[in-house]
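Bench log. Compound arrived from synthesis this morning; before running ITC I wanted a structural hypothesis for how H79 sits in the protein. Inputs:
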Amino acid sequence: MNKRWERTDWFREARFGMFIHWGLYAIPARGEWVRSVEKLSNEAYEPYFREFRPDRYDPRAWARAAKAAGQQYAVLTTKHHDGFCLFDSEFTDYKATNTPAQRDLIKEYVEAFRDEGLKVGFYYSLIDWHHDDYPAYGDRIHPMRDNEAYANRSIQFERYVDYLHAQVKELITNYGKIDIMWFDFSYDDMTGEKWRATELVNLIRSLQPDIIIDNRLGGDIKKSEPEVYAGDFYSPEQIVPPGGIVDENGLHVPWEACITLNDNWGYHAKDYAYKSPKQVVRALVECVSKNGNMLLNVGPDARGEIPAESTRILSSVGEWMRRNGESIYGCGASSLPKPEWGRYTQNGNMLYAHVFDRGIGPIYFQGLKGKIKKARLLADGSELKVSTPWMAEHYSDTESGAFIHLTGAELPDDMDTVIALEIE
Ligand code: H79
């Protein structure tokens, strides 16, 4: 799939993006699945719609936070499973325009992120708990799954699919160029042509030929001749796939691991299970070392602010990225095996050694003897010397290796010390 490779060119360079889950569920503040988990009826969920007044919504602050973190693109929930639309859709009243927010929040998001030079993506939920024609019967994810009268109501699913198509058309027509369409998600027999996915993707591509689409409309992106709707990139959720993603011919499939900062996507007031900046940096490095991206989530609160702890983590990751971004952007897997002390990323003849584990003594680079033209500590550009330790010739397995001595007992950067190696 050459087209897929071309379309994802910028995406595979960018490597790091911001996912934003924001909607009415920020008010109950128990995660974006609250309506389903607590089996809330439309009526029980309704007060949040009447109350939605994000007086601290400032997408420019979000965009600055993303930029400062070193993220190069963003994806925002235009509609999540609860069906609430942050955009001014012609086809529903269940939208931000009709809440006390009184305006199209997507428009401001697009403008703000564009102005910061970031690429812009739209998340759109295929699942819809609010639409009258979305099926609940036998559906393990629907809030009304146990309400027999509700489940047995007569629905016309095609009307929902028309609605889905019409809204996607609005999203890619009314906001200028959009870089990513991120659908979520197919399950059981609700997949592929159930969404009239070929027609939908053809519509999207006719209006936005360069847009890239995730793989959650269905199909199998790993086939050598995937369906039209199988997507441009694979989207592992809450995991960095151990071996990356390759297709049935062993060729790389572009991919992006979406990862939360704590344990929820939408704002959760009592979820303090935050990852450390070090974990985030190392997970990002791991993604890149396996030819993937990381889409790191924030869940702004009901007033529109990114939680303070998330902001702190992002800015700390950004500090690292500012000095070490060269080892992330445009980089991918190295053909060298994973080293004992950390990971490699590579971009042409620049090999980046991400040293996670100092050990004692010099750092060992298997297979690189005589091949290192230059070694620098990436963070400050300082020279590092390749040297052979005393009696190294007697150690098994070291004939083809090179050694670099780092001064000091501790690593210069506890999150990840990067050595930039120019190799032959
Ligand atoms: O938008 C985010 C999630 O809301 C959505 N995709 C990301 C990007 C998503 N998360 N998990 N899933 C989809 C898979 C479904 C998990 C479930 Fe459950 C298990 C649904 C019901 C049982 C997790 C646990 C959610 C509710 C309880």
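What the model suggests: The domain at 2-327 is CATH 3.20.20.80 (TIM Barrel). The chain has two domains: 2-327, 342-423.
ITC booked for Thursday regardless.
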